[in-house]
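Human: You know discrete backbone vocabularies at least as well as I do. Show me how you would write down a chain together with its backbone fold. No explanation is needed for now; the record alone will do.

Assistant:
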Amino acid sequence: MTVALITGASRGFGNALARQLVAQGWTLVLDARDPGVLASATADLGTAVTAVAGDVADPAHRAELADAVRAAGRLDLLVNNASLLGPSPQPTLDRYPLAELRQVFDVNVLAPLALTQLVLPWLVEARGSVVNLSSDAAVEAYPGWGGYGASKAALDQLTAVLAAECAERPDLRVYAFDPGDMRTDMHQLAFPGEDISDRPLPETVVPALLRLLDERPPSGRYRAVDLLVPAAQEAVGTGAAR
């Protein structure tokens, strides 16, 4: 039995990944903020899925997720996918509400680290992988993306340092994974009123992460566009990924 914990799994990339892992026989612990949306999104995934609704920024909820992992008896994969965009439309940094920026960092940086701390012993035992969802905004300076981009840059650095600190555990992998642009609710929030139908569906990006997990290259930062086979690259494109 292989077990994965995926946060933000009620829609978008997290849900698409969950569906493909279930199809491959994985046992899953899935998380999302809205109980109703999570229940609806996982209703057809079968008994191999444990859905635990809550906010990853809440320590009590993270403890519930760790309890679900404990009940499963192992953990092979942690995917820190849950993210918070921040205000929509996104403000420039000179007028970014600091209280909302703290929330972005709580969800996008502190929560992934805190959850990793809780479940790392199981991952080490299973010789598993940590995957933190990154963004092109972590490495490029896009006007209006300062809050979200800064949080993802911080997550990238946490990921890189964790990988360095786990170097004595050669069977553990720690990845930052940049999926690129996708047609998701969060991406639509980033571009309110705009047509984003040209962005690829999350389902077309999942194979890139599956390849990463199958081939298990050294820990590091990887882009979906570099992992997809040439035919799939056309669907994703090579434009700026946020």
About this structure: The longest helix spans residues 98-126.
